[in-house]
């Protein structure tokens, strides 16, 4: 059986020593920049406000979220930051989510090193580190995981759901996403890429691991704090140590696919393909699976259909059938628009280039 497995998302709560005092200048800077972002966003809802802190660039949201005043995002991380350190015992002033893109590009160890070093430099020494969610996934191809799904799965889950595209099942889920324990999705990853038209770089990974890219399914377990604490897992390093145990727990106890040859499901043997899936983290290594610049190149190619759609709609409205004439008019209209925004094409491209490059520092 061909497969590729990886950590697809991880979320971590962080507290630092003397948080407000150490980060006072950064918090003041973010407060001013957020007000600026808000003022511009009211007239331009597509606006993305760029900030650079200690050589790492982020888009700063004009809004916050519960408990956190500032939301910083780039293609590697989302960092939620509190203005003040709450007196609530379990509250941490920093919340980090490492993106799928970075985890597939660099692996967990290197991705965590990048953001860990940035947090220490920006907010001080870390005194509390708590992983509260980690997603383990395994992509497999040419395996039937959905036929008689309501009869062939047993485990500790209390709820299951099925979702369709037309008459075909595209996803089955087990457990509840609101639970603090485990939630599992088994879904058609090939179909997802076709519908969302994003992360085309998975095709390169699948090819490298011998998967049939037209029929790839993802088995993904969202493992939350309640389950993690059962294994005494708190830190990112704990995750790396216990990855195999977590996957085995999820696929040996929490969810099992059987061959339904007996009315009583507990007497049915485990499905042979599922027995192989149970081993998919036995030799796991936290290494890069695809270069980040290759991801960006693939994502650029994925933009072409939308660009062509917009350009042809624009040309139709301008009544121009010739592509050269259409692009000439677009050129002048683009310059006029950017001039109205007090910027130019070169500046806007440099901002985005800077954003991509400064998301990769310290790797």
Can you put this structure into words, describing what you see?
With 363 residues, the chain is an alpha+beta fold. The protein folds into three domains: 18-124, no CATH class; 135-289, no CATH class; 303-357, no CATH class. Helices cover 42% and strands 25% of the residues. It contains 13 helices and 13 strands. It has helices spanning 19-22, 24-41, 100-123, 149-152, 189-196, 202-208, 225-230, 236-254, 272-277, 292-302, 304-317, 323-340, 345-357, and strands at residues 3-16, 49-53, 56-60, 70-73, 77-81, 94-98, 126-141, 153-155, 160-165, 168-174, 182-188, 216-224, 255-257. The chain has an eleven-stranded antiparallel β-sheet with strand order 2-3-4-5-6-1-7-12-11-10-9, with helices on both faces. Strands 8-13 form a two-stranded antiparallel ribbon. Strand 9 (160-165) and strand 10 (168-174) form a beta hairpin. The radius of gyration is 23 Å and the shape is globular. The two termini are 33 Å apart.
Estimate nothing, just give the exact number of structural domains: 3
- Beta-strand level of the residues, as a percent range? 15-25%
* Proportion of residues in helical segments: 40-55%
Number of helices: 13
Q: Which stretches of 5+ consecutive residues score pLDDT under 50?
A: none
How far apart the termini lie comes to 33 Å
Placed side by side, the strands forming the largest sheet appear as 2-3-4-5-6-1-7-12-11-10-9
The string of secondary-structure elements, in order, is EHHEEEEEHEHEEEEHHEHHEHHHHH
- Taken from the alpha-carbon principal axes, the silhouette is globular
Q: Supply the helix-strand structural class.
A: alpha+beta
Task: Report the count of strand segments.
Answer: 13
Largest sheet: 11 strands, antiparallel
- What is the average of the pLDDT values? 89
Provide the gyration radius in Å.
23 Å
């Amino acid at each position: 059986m061909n497969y590729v497995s990886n950590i697809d998302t991880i979320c971590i709560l962080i507290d630092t020593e003397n948080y407000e005092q150490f980060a006072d200048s950064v918090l003041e800077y973010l407060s001013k920049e957020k007000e600026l972002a808000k003022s511009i966003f009211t007239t331009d809802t597509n606006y993305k406000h760029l900030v650079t802190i200690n050589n790492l660039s982020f888009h700063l949201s004009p809004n916050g979220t519960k408990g956190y005043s500032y939301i910083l995002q780039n293609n590697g991380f989302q960092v939620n930051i509190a203005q003040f350190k709450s007196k609530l015992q379990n509250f941490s002033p920093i919340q980090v989510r490492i993106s799928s893109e970075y985890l597939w590009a660099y692996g967990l160890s290197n991705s965590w090193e990048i953001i860990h070093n940035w947090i220490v430099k920006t907010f001080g020494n870390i005194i509390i580190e708590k992983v509260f969610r980690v997603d383990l996934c395994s992509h497999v191809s040419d395996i039937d995981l959905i036929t008689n799904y309501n009869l062939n799965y047993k485990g500790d889950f209390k709820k299951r759901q099925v979702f369709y595209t037309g008459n075909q099942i595209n996803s089955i889920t087990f457990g509840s996403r609101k639970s603090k324990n485990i939630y599992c999705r088994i879904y058609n990853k090939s179909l997802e890429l076709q519908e969302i038209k994003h992360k085309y770089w998975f095709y390169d990974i699948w090819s490298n691991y011998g998967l049939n890219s037209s029929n790839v399914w993802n088995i993904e377990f969202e493992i939350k704090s309640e389950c993690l604490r059962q294994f005494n897992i708190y830190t990112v390093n704990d995750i790396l140590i216990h990855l195999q145990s977590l996957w085995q727990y999820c696929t040996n106890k929490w969810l099992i696919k059987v061959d339904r040859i007996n009315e009583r499901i507990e007497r049915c043997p485990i499905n042979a393909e599922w027995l192989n899936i149970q081993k998919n983290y036995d030799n796991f290594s936290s290494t890069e699976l695809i270069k980040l610049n290759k991801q960006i190149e693939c994502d650029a190619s994925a933009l072409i259909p939308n660009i062509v759609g917009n350009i042809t709609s624009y040309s139709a409205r301008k009544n121009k059938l010739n592509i050269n004439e259409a692009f000439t008019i677009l050129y002048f209209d683009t310059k006029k628009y950017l001039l109205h925004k007090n910027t130019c094409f070169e500046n806007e491209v440099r901002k985005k280039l800077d954003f991509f490059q400064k998301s990769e520092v310290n790797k």
